[in-house]
C-alpha cells in the first residue's frame, strides 16, 4: 500500500520548511518556515503514537537543503548460492538483509560492506548495484523522511558469524528456506526474490522506480 496522503503532505511541508530555513534572509520568512515545520510535526504526531516533542526535535535536527536519505542493503551470497540474513534486535529479532544508512565520506558500496561486517561478522565485496528503490513506493510502513535504498549484490570474502548490538542472529538461506518472519520495514519478500534473480543472472539491469 502507498503511504497515506497525510504522510506525503507532512513530509513535503517539512522539506519546504527545512530548505526555506536554510536559505531565507528575511526574519519574517524565517518565522513562517519555522511555523510550517511545527505544523508538519503536529500532523505526524496527530496520526501516529509518536510524541510531538520528539518529532519536533527530529525535524529541528535536519538542516540545509532537504534531500532523501540514503540507505544500503547487502545481498551476500556464498558458494552454495545461499543468501546472508541477520536478526534485527530493534524489530523483535526478525530477519533482514544486513544494511543501514550510508555514511558520510564513504561511498554507498563502502557503506554496505561496512554494514555487512558490523551486523554479521562476514567480509564482503560489493559486485553489483542491483536496485535503487524508494521506500515509500515499496509499502514498508510510514517514515518521517523520504528514503532511497540501494541494494547491492555482494560476494563473500571471509569472516565468521558474529552478532552485534543491532543483531541477535546470523544465517544463510536457500530460496526455499528464507524465514517468514521478516523485518519488512527493512526487507520484503520482493527484495529477497529480486536479489536471488540478480545473483542467478548477473547481466540483469539495475532496477529502479
The backbone outline, from C-alpha atoms, is elongated
Number of helices: 5
What order do the strands of the largest sheet run in, or round the barrel if closed?
Answer: 4-1-6-5-8
Q: How far from one another are the termini? A: 15 Å
Number of strands: 8
Report the radius of gyration as a whole number of Å: 19 Å
What number of domains?
Answer: 2
Protein architecture, described:
The protein is an alpha/beta fold. The protein has 2 domains: 5-60; 69-208, Nucleoside Triphosphate Pyrophosphohydrolase (Alpha-Beta Complex). Helix content is 35%, strand content 27%. The chain has 5 helices and 8 strands; from the N terminus they run αααββββαβββαβ. The protein has helices at 5-23, 27-47, 52-60, 108-120, 189-200; strands at 69-77, 83-88, 94-96, 99-101, 122-134, 147-159, 167-173, 207-208. The protein has a 5-stranded mixed sheet, sandwiched between helices. Strands 3-2-7 form a 3-stranded antiparallel sheet, with no helix packed on it. The mean pLDDT is 94.
Concise structural overview:
The protein is α/β, with parallel strands linked by helices. Helix content is 35%, strand content 27%.
